[in-house]
Amino acid sequence: MATDTTIFGKIIRREVPADIVFEDEQLIAFRDIAPSAPVHVLFVPKTPIASLDAAQPAHAELLGRLMLAAAEYARTQGLAQDGYRVVVNCGPDAGQTVFQLHLHLLAGAPLGPFGKR
Ligand code: AMP
Question: Which domains does the chain have, with CATH numbers?
């Protein structure tokens, strides 16, 4: 399997520290180092996938697990009732900076309208 050489790959391999809040065989989740909301957690598959644009049909189950892990985390942290936002940045116009697919979970306060330029 290819090695994820991004900062997230280093976090997965424990080469770089992170505030890890969830991990299983296929996924890891940790707090964003520069949070955009009171709760800002990144959910990352351990399989190297550079972006959503690079995802393949073979990744369908993994992507489903990624979404469900975020929802489960939100539920268990008591965030689901007030609500939360899930974001995947893909490519330059979205401002993707780390080229290992990841999902942002944002919560803990009203987040305002989404998608304004
Ligand atoms: P994106 O713009 O979607 O690629 O998001 C990348 C996110 O990774 C940004 O919100 C960064 O703040 C976050 N980030 C970068 N390095 C680290 C790190 N070492 N630990 C936690 N989050 C990080």
Answer: 3-107 (3.30.428.10)
Which pair of structure tokens corresponds to residue 92? Answer: 């330059």
Sequence-ordered alpha helix ranges (H) in the chain:
7-12, 60-76
Query: How many Å apart are CA 99 and CA 94, to the nearest integer?
Result: 12
Q: What is the pLDDT along the chain (117 residues), one digit of tens a residue?
A: 566 899 999 999 999 999 999 999 999 999 999 999 999 999 999 999 999 999 999 999 999 999 999 999 999 999 999 999 999 999 999 999 999 999 999 999 999 888 777
Question: pTM for the full model?
Answer: 0.96
- Concerning whether 59 is annotated as a catalytic residue, the answer is no
Task: Give ∠ CA 14-64-11 in degrees, rounded to 5.
Answer: 10
Report yes or no: 81 and 65 within 8 Å, Cβ to Cβ.
no
The residue whose CB lies within 8 Å of the most ligand 1 atoms, and thus the one to mutate among 33, 85, 89, 106, is 33
Owner of token pair 């369908």: 60
Cα 9 to averaged position of ligand 1 atoms, centre (Å): 12
